[in-house]
Design brief:
about 400 residues, alpha/beta, FAD/NAD(P)-binding domain, D-Amino Acid Oxidase, Chain A, domain 2, 2 domains, 16 strands, about 30% helix
Length: about 400
Amino acid sequence: MSTKPILISGAGLASLLLAQSLRLSKIPFKIFERDASFAFRAQGYRLRLSAEGLDAIESVLDPEAWQRFWAKCGKTGGLGFAAFNAVTGEQTEEKQPESLTSRGGRVIGIARGDMRRLFADGCEDAIEWNRHVTGYELTEDGVRAVFSDGTKSVDGSMLVGGEGIYSKVAKQLSAGKLKTFDTGARGIHGQAPSSAFRALGEGVFRLVDTTRQNGSVFVITNVRPGDMDDPNVQFGWTLGGQPGVIKPPNDDFSIVGKVAADIAKDLTKDWHPRFKPLFEQMNEKEAAFWKITCSTPSGVPGWTNEPRVTVIGDAVHSMTPAGGIGANTAVRDSALLGRLLREAGGYQPGVTAAYEKGMRVYASEAVHTSYSGARGAFGIREIDEENDPTV
């Protein structure tokens, strides 16, 4: 096994799960994260885990860590899935998505922040904070990450770009073939005390308002059992709007707090009394904007393989929230690449090529499914892969 560490850019979900796999395989690694800590910015919405995502996570974690992870997951049954007219309160005939449930006929979900902390357990000492990777350079027998301040990392055996949709590693590796497009749709994440959700009951809910002249608005929320009567527990919701409906000031998506909360309240002020507590009682400090993006809808493109560099997660396949498969696809990357590295005893020529060949199959299908779902559910515009500007 090479004594040079595997370098990982970004400390998101896919990067941290890969780090867990490397740790358990006793393969040295280092993680470079541009933020100052996990608490630097909002963690985003609650994630729904598919059967494939759960299988990938379970295949990586040791039994004890898996039990901690599984215990933290919410298991929602109740009504299952129900859709409502947000203004009238009437239930609609929208069908439950086929992939909504995963294990035991229940919807399995977990907060992104909880998932990130669990995946980081035991890997904290390998994280270097305030390290913004802007590229890489190959050495005689390795690779170095290049940082925004002009400094460079130690020599690594391999570099994995997992720093999200703005990944500089992905752009350099693919010579610009990996692209992320702005769909035009926008959203707001929010949280409220679990008591605000009591009128909904247990289940997964989609609320839709088509009365607005400039486009429809929807909310997706998961009301899980066990915590509904505890006012100290907060549940989350995700509000989205068609292009042009939600407009962050100056198109600044770093804004968190009252500005985003006020827009969410205004958009839902005429909703049915059953749903309004989600917004009237929201924790304003936690409200955050989000931009709905999507990678090349036709699938993950090919590029000339570089044996010592590859990419995982949103860096290679950004998805809309339609279908809830983005994070599930990302953890499949971690499991696949981690397994290949374990079997090879660390970096070996051919590992990245084998990973990219396998990843392109399931990731291309996932991106297309997510994009197609968003065309119908969110009213996003059609993407021109050749001529549209990228984010």
